[in-house]
Amino acid sequence: MLDTVVNWFAAHPQFTAALIASVKAIVILLVTVVVAAWMIWLERRLLGLWQDRYGPNRIGPFGLGQVIADMVKIFFKEDWLPPFVDKFTFILAPGLAMGLMLLMFALVPVTPTWGVADFNVGVLLFLAIAGLEVYAVMLGGWSSNSKYALLGGLRVTAQTVSYEVFMGIALMGIVMLAGSFNLRDIVVAQAEHGWYIVPQFFGFCTFVLAAIAVVHRTPFDLPEAESELAAGFHTEYSGMKFGMFFVGEYVGIVLVSAITVALFFGGWSGPGVDSHPWLAFPWFAIKCLVFMSSFILLRASLPRPRYDQMMAAGWKVCLPLSLINLLGTAAVVVARSHGA
Amino acid sequence: MADDAPLSVPGLENEVIRDLYARFGESAFVPQRTRDGMPTLWVRAEQIVDVLRHLKNGVAKPYKMLYDLTAVDERLRKHRQDLPAADFTVVYQLLSIERDMTRSGSPDIRLKVALKGEYPHLPTATTVYENANWYEREVWDLFGIVFDGHPSLRRIMLPPRWVGHPLRKEHAARATEFDPFVLDQMRQDLDQEALLFKPEDWGMKKGTDNEDFMFLNLGPNHPSAHGAFRIVLQLDGEEIVDCVPDIGYHHRGAEKMGERQSWHSYIPYTDRIDYLGGVMNNLPYVMAVEKLAGITVPARAQTVRIMMSEFFRITSHLLFFGTFLQDVGAMSPVFFAFVDRQKAYDVIEAVTGFRMHPAWYRIGGLAHDLPQGWDRLVREFIEHLPKRLDEYQKAALENSIVVSRTRHVAAYDTAQAMEWGTTGGGLRATGMAYDLRKTRPYCGYENFDFEIPTGKYGDAYDRLIVRVEEMRQSVRIIQQCLDNMPSGPYKADHPLTTPPPKDRTLKDIETLITHFLQVSWGPVIPAGEASVMIEATKGLNSYYLTSDGSTMSYRTRIRTPSFAHLQQIPSVIRGQMIPDLIAYIASIDFVMADVDR
Q: Where does the NADH-quinone oxidoreductase subunit D domain start and stop, copy by copy (chain B) (predicted)?
């Protein structure tokens, strides 16, 4: 019986490859969602630690079960549609928020053998999907038909559009150094030439700022600035639709951490990976965890700039900085190729 | 009854009164003796606006601030010999900070207007003092006195469909005196209808011919409104073109309750006026009653009163500091501030037995003496706090985002502050070192060594820094209380001290009778009027008490700083952005209970 199944798969190698790839994809997506949900716990515990309090510590060991309890609660909440909203868009928006974030995860090279898709235009695709991400919040804010949500949507549109401009430019230096848009090639190139955080330090700074702005985390959480706009673009959302925005934000943090690690910190590479390939994933995970935690630390320590100040910082500081970085890198690359 | 309180007759020894007599003629005024010695003159209704204008602009060292404007229903008052006949009296209290700072001449003057009739009329004072606006609305709302020429005389404390004017003597004081409340469909519809927002009712325009304005309703339920406070914004994008604050959601009729509680049993109500101020609210009230009764409080009681008041200044300012930074988006400081507040409350609880609302001061002294070992607790706290404040200085106050969010935001100068009756940290941030504890030391503050922190620009950042610095000064004051706590009784030996000292009650019958009457009925306070002003956590707070020689107050007027500060908002914030408004509201440091009473 088993033999026949194995033989059948052996006889259809293309199908087998596709099946294995699908299983890998599903595993990666599931792990991402679980990690994102678990980040809620991590964030609350770390904030508790830094703010002289406990955080959730009641359910399960170290309060780890809190996430499950929260999820159960949020699933069973009434799926309330306010009567004044534009129904289709209102429902579409949180799905987009979560879906697009997960889609971007397909691009992340986790280990030499794991990863969902391997596009030659990976970096461009990442920027393109990140650009679409603004629609989720914009539509959410607009369809809510509420003034606070509208102001939040307005802020998010301006913020994301201006920060995406130099997010792309910040990454072009890397593309030039690696000579490829493929994320996997970029990781491999770093394994050979060293992490790009060193030659691309300014690119790193501007990219991280832009990334925080795009996933709208503190200090760039103006679209949902609680003390100003109640809950901003998701003021009218509740239940699982709110949950999608909420978890989507954490998926965003995981994603941004993973991309930053892949682009600037050598992805899975690290001491001992060549001799022990199984170390690839732990290295990747540890690096991601460091970034995820620093996003939480940022939230614990920084206040929120004013909307116009944030825009000014984007256009007047980050954009010129990333352009100068791009030009500098280009000069170096050209000079080097002539020398060779 | 002992009657050793000085009764001063304002007269020719006062140069302002000489000036007024010279200008308007002596027959235009009737002077009144009050227990607090404040120059008090009765003025005819048709002359009041001229007199106010003269005092604001015409006299040397002018009275730039309308400190309070209120009314009294005189119709049931028995002890009013030598006073002009009146059904209602409107009372104006003016304050000259210049006189107060230089300590020359009387810093306050009280003017009264006698009014006859059921719903009397009187010209508005808004043409002289801009901040008369809300005060006159309040008087109309609660007394039914009409101010002719007022720009927008509508209810301010009570809902628009309320029937009657509660501070009139014929209005019921308790829920049990009303018919049972029934909400039928018609009433519900009418109430809902009254809630609809019509910009015209608020003195705003709906739009121009070419555009409709966007109105944003901020509150009464909003994370940064600091209580049930509502402000309607007219926006252009995120820029505030105009705004109208709406208060009254927290109105509990505290002044009316004063007319139904004994002098003693009203003390716990005062705790809940500025609910972050704790026993500091008791202070002006008991001091006013003591002034009426002629009680001199022993030194130990005074020093303990100062010490506990400064503890509450610290807890209130800590909450301000934490929520301020939270409102500009920093989430952690509020937790640290609350940890420190807990430590302060631990001391307060050990001393008074309660945490937020101890109601611990008594007429003539304190509820009890300091517990054994209080000094160790107090010392621990004052050693703890300055270290934390230094940490906050580095971690939060010097943060460049905080500075750029609040520097030059919602700034006003000293003259504007006085025009709007702004006091406390909001006034000191403009550079005016005005602190009642220095200019008019009460309760023994003259014996303490401390400084008055001031700002420079009068902006949100200065208001933050001034209050953080005030916490350090409060620590200094507490340190001095700790080092020099006098011994002696914690209650005055006076027949009106409540509850009375009990030592001799079982030894002689007179003391037993006095004790019994005071504990069962409460003290009978001699007829008269007195107001006492203190530098409370949020600004100048005063209680203006009128006694008609009974066990209850005839009229209790509570002048709170927050009321004045909220009225100032539109004049400051026009042209700035929503995040600036949030930073401004946070920097005012108000609680709605202190606004609405």
A: 327-597
Q: Is A249 left (phi over 0), alpha (psi -120 to 50) or beta?
A: alpha
Q: Is the peptide bond before B220 cis (omega within 30 degrees of 0)?
A: yes
B459 touches A at CB < 8 Å: no
CB nearest to A304's CB, from B237, B329, B339: B329
CATH code of the domain occupying B262-562: 1.10.645.10
Q: Which two tokens stand for residue B245?
A: 């604050």
Mean pLDDT for B517-521 is: 85
Which amino acid belongs to residue A72?
V
CB contact under 8 A, B405 and A303: yes
* 8 Å CB contact of A306 and B216: no
Q: Which of B332, B334, B338, B342 to mutate to test the interface with A (most CBs of A within 10 A)?
A: B332
**B223–A226 CB contact, under 8 Å:** yes
| Count of CB atoms situated within 10 Å of the CB of B23 | 13
Centre a 10 Å sphere on the Cβ of residue B327 and count the other Cβ atoms it contains.
Answer: 27
Domain extent listing, chain B: 15-129, 262-562
* Sole residue written with tokens 């990219």: A207
> What average pLDDT is seen over chain B?
87
Phi, psi (rounded to 5 degrees) for A164: -70, -30
Contact, A283 vs A109, CB < 8 A? Answer: no
Using DSSP, state whether B242 is helix, strand or coil.
strand
Extract the runs of DSSP E, i.e. beta strands, from B162-238.
214-218, 230-236
Torsion on CA atoms A106, A107, A110, A112, rounded to nearest 10: 120
Whether residue A294 lies within 8 A of chain B, CB to CB, comes out as no
CB spacing of A227 vs B330 below 8 angstroms = no
**ipTM for the predicted complex:** 0.80
The pLDDT tens digits for B157-215 are: 998 888 889 999 888 888 888 888 889 999 999 988 888 888 877 777 777 778 778 88
d(CA A241, CA A285): 29
Q: Which of B224, B331, B325 is nearest to A51 (CA)?
A: B331
- Say how far apart CA B434 and CA A260 lie, in whole Å: 55
Instruction: Tell me the pTM.
Output: 0.86
**Of residues B123, B60, B131, the one with CA closest to residue B93:** B131
Taking Cα atoms as reference points, which of B62, B131, B54, B52 lies closest to residue B98?
B62
**Cβ contacts of B104 within 8 Å, gap of 6 or more:** B61
Sheet holding B528-535, edge to edge: B528-535, B540-547, B553-559
- Least CB–CB distance from A302: residue in B237, B330, B580: B330
- Among B499, B490, B497, which residue's Cα sits nearest to residue B364? B497
Residue found by looking up tokens 């809630």 in the block: B195
pLDDT at B91: 93
Instruction: Provide the residue count of chain B.
Output: 597
Q: Please report residues of B whose CB lies closer than 8 A to that of A228.
A: 224, 578-579, 582
Size of chain A in residues: 340
Chain A residue whose CA is closest to B409? A306
